[in-house]
Write a structure and sequence with these properties.
Radius of gyration: 39 Å
Distance between the termini: 76 Å
Strand content: 5-15%
Mean pLDDT: 79
């Protein structure tokens, strides 16, 4: 203990090698009782007063307003991204369904089947890949579209009797049934380019 003020009779604890816990608590000031009769003995009770810089943080209204604006901007940004992706998906769907041939629909359907884990190997042909499908109805649809695709791609003839909308609806229904609701829409709007 060190006498810091002789006139006020205030003492302070001083350690030459403070450890972390003492430095984080702040300084301690020890003051003797006010009813002193004499300063002869050390039997005097002392009071410890801690100086602390702990203040309760007050939330300013402007910070709350800024936080609300940022959360609103984030929400509107997410809604905007979803709107753009849905619009792009509709535009691509219209391109695929209303073009004259089946080539874009065929490539789209192969890409969509990868979302449920059905992939053609690089060494097999399109016909072999279609024959390797496990679902019977899906296999029939794909064998039919592969024949029409080959006629258009290699022969240059377009088959007007092929119903692209029926094939598209069946494909999307099959993928929705296989993958589940949320995964289906996530893959439909966010993973297919």
């Amino acid at each position: 203990e060190i006498l810091t003020s002789n006139s006020k009779d205030s003492w302070e604890i001083f350690d030459c090698t403070p450890d972390f816990s003492e430095t984080s608590q702040g300084h301690k000031i020890i003051m003797p009782n006010a009813n002193l009769k004499g300063v002869k003995g050390m039997d005097i009770e002392t009071k410890t007063v801690k100086k602390s810089n702990n203040k309760i943080p007050m939330i300013n209204i402007s910070y709350f307003f800024i936080l609300c604006l940022l959360s609103l901007a984030l929400f509107l940004g997410v809604i905007g991204v979803v709107f753009i992706r849905v619009r792009r998906w509709r535009r691509n769907k219209n391109k695929i369904l209303f073009c004259q041939g089946v080539i874009p629909l065929y490539y789209y359907s192969k890409k969509r089947l990868t979302t449920v884990g059905i992939k053609w190997s690089n060494t097999s042909s399109d016909e072999e890949g279609a024959l390797g499908l496990k679902d019977e109805i899906l296999r029939e649809h794909f064998i039919n579209i592969v024949k029409v695709f080959y006629e258009e791609y290699y022969g240059g003839t377009i088959d007007p009797s092929f119903d692209k909308l029926e094939f598209y609806k069946y494909l999307e229904g099959y993928i929705k049934k296989s993958s589940g609701f949320f995964k289906y829409y996530y893959n439909k709007f966010f993973s297919i380019r």
